[in-house]
Every structure is written in structure tokens, then in C-alpha cells.
Amino acid sequence: MSNRQSESAGVVKCSADGVVVIPVEVREVLGIKNKEAFLRLNDISVAKVVNEDDDTKLSDVEEENA
Question: Which InterPro entries match (predicted)?
């Protein structure tokens, strides 16, 4: 992927054939930052809903779930 990734809290682009651009933060968590990858999404669930006004970080959520 030669295009510069945009840092965003959500999916920034989805093509007609289902190709999406995943935010840098999510790519980092998945271990695929700066790599081209194919993802298979079968079961999707929400681990925790975080308010946009909240400054909760991923590490805070991981500590709560530990």
C-alpha cells in the first residue's frame, strides 16, 4: 500500500467491492501497521463502547478487562 494512511477513529474509505481503509490505531492493535493485509471478519462484537468525549485509552480498557 503506497498511499499514506489517515489517522482516524473510524473507517475512512470503503470501495464497492468491500475494500476498506482501517485506521492506523486499529492496524497497530492488530499488528499490521505499515503492512498490506487481508482480514477475515466472521464474528464481530463490541468489546466496550467509549464516548467520543472520553479520553479513555486502549490500555485503560485492557486493564479493566484483565
Answer: SpoVT-AbrB_sf
